[in-house]
Write a structure and sequence with these properties.
Elements lengths: L1 H18 L7 E4 L2 E11 L3 E7 L10 E8 L6 H11 L8 E3 L10 E7 L7 E9 L7 E10 L3 H10 L1 H10 L16 E3 L1
Parallel strand pairs: 2-9
Antiparallel strand pairs: 1-2, 2-3, 3-4, 4-8, 5-6, 6-7, 7-8
Length: 193
């Protein structure tokens, strides 16, 4: 009888552990999807960059990503948005769109929508980016939601316009700490310093 109880307890414990998703990496939920930290870059000139991917995606081949960047030494949103857009301009396939933040967000927030592609147009990348300052944080932060798919601008623009409301709401609520190192058990991740 003791052997049966012990076996049952071990099996029950294993079932509980299997039922609970376990992750070593920091993670975030965006639009009901789980994203795990996959990339960290710490650079004195470009600040801290963290990229989060969905299960099964890699840094080279991904379909959805959220990221956070923080420039601790920059105090004004306008001091980063201009240089950022200039850096990305060569990849624009449509003019950048600027949106006011949803009500109740920090007054310094600025939201930008970008459609980007490499010169060969092998894919289309949709980006919804919020720049802002957060109470108790130094510098400017950028939160980004990105989708990557086939280059089909005629289909992507109306689809993304239809999904804009929930995305803007989630982006306005997103709060992630900029992390300057990855946990040691990060199979798909890497760290740059």
């Amino acid at each position: 009888m003791r052997a049966f109880i012990l076996c049952f307890a071990i099996s029950f414990s294993a079932c509980l552990q299997a039922a609970e998703p376990r992750t070593e990496n920091p993670s975030a939920v965006f639009l009901d999807s789980l994203f795990e930290l996959a990339f960290v870059d710490v650079n004195p000139q470009s600040g801290i960059t963290n990229e989060y991917l969905q299960d099964g995606d890699t840094l080279e081949e991904w379909t959805a990503m959220i990221s956070v960047r923080q420039w601790p030494e920059i105090d004004l949103v306008r001091d980063i948005t201009g240089p950022y857009l200039k850096q990305m301009q060569a990849s624009f396939v449509r003019d950048a769109q600027v949106f006011s933040p949803p009500p109740g967000t920090v007054g310094t927030d600025l939201i930008i929508e970008l459609y980007l592609a490499p010169p060969d147009k092998s894919y289309l990348e949709y980006n919804l980016i919020r720049f802002g300052k957060e109470p108790g944080q130094h510098g400017v932060k950028m939160y980004q939601f990105a989708l990557r798919g086939d280059f089909d601008l005629e289909r992507a623009v109306p689809f993304n316009a239809q999904e804009m409301g929930p995305r803007l709401d989630q982006l306005a609520k997103l709060r992630l700490q900029a992390i300057n190192s990855l946990p040691s058990k990060t199979p798909a991740g890497q760290i740059n310093r």
